[in-house]
Amino acid sequence: MALCGQILLVRHGRPRIEWPRRCRHPEFKRWIERYDAAELDPASPPPPRLVEAASESGLFVSSCRPRSYQSALQLSRGLPVVQLSELDEVPLPDLPIPMIELPTEAWVLLTRLSHFAGYARETESIGMARARSRLAAARLAEYASANRRVAAVAHGTINWLIGRNLKRDGWRVRSRGETGGYWHWRLFAPSPDTANSAAD
Question: Which pTM does this prediction carry?
Answer without folding.
Answer: 0.93
